[in-house]
Specification:
- The protein has 2 domains: 59 residues, no CATH class; 199 residues, no CATH class.
- With 260 residues, it is mainly beta.
- It contains 3 helices and 19 strands.
- Strand 6 and strand 7 form a beta hairpin.
- The strands form 5 sheets. Strands 6, 7, 8, 9, 10, 11, 14 and 15 form an 8-stranded mixed β-sheet that branches. A 5-stranded antiparallel β-sheet has the order 2-1-3-4-5, with no helix packed on it.
Amino acid sequence: MSLTAIRNADGTKVEARNVRKAGGPYHCQGCGEVLTLKKGRVVVHHFAHRPPVTCGWGLGESAEHYDAKMAIFDALCTDPAVSDVRLEAPVGDIAVADVLALIRSQWVAIEVQRSELTAAQIARRTANYHAMGVSVLWVALPCPGLAHERYSPSVWEKWVHYAYFGRIYYWTHGQVVTPYHMDEHALYMEPRRWFDVGNLRYGGGYERRSRRWRTPLKGAPVVIGSHFQARRCAGRNTKTMAVPACTLYIDRQPAWWTAA
């Protein structure tokens, strides 16, 4: 599925919401195959490949993903700080940005994260944007679990948190995103006692750092077109994370979690 396609008649890239079936035929800008325009009251307007589907363009995107990137696109189109906004724009050889925008003379790729992308895939796409002179902002879909005291981040969330120096951005509405810091979470080990070869043993009664859980600390909501800046970063690694040399789009607010 895709929100955009190429119109055969004039080679123009069009949005599904702005065209009719009579204006076709349309084809995929990824594989070149014919697309079918789908318009309805429930499902977001989109283009679909005819089966069997072998093209990876738009593969695995949910309705929530479509809604988020369309809302970001629409909001940026009305922002005076943005001079060019493109929906589903190819950048380099391996990446198609959900939204590509020229913000204060800086090209920014905005990627609404899909759950099936691995940390390695995100790293490769981030490196691709860097090679093309484009900064990247990875945005996650809203998550109810962030309202709780403890949260178990996915592998890709851990990668983004490490790459963005302790921040993950979750889409709120329009071009507004809310950053969260995943702080350490302490688990209390209940006091206990037991017998070991006839000897009474004691344990517990203390806190230990959880390997699974984190405490989400919410930052102030930020606007993509106003509160961010491009930041060139050298590659860095841990035992479990590898971030390539990249240009990240990061908000300018100080680290709120240091005062938490």
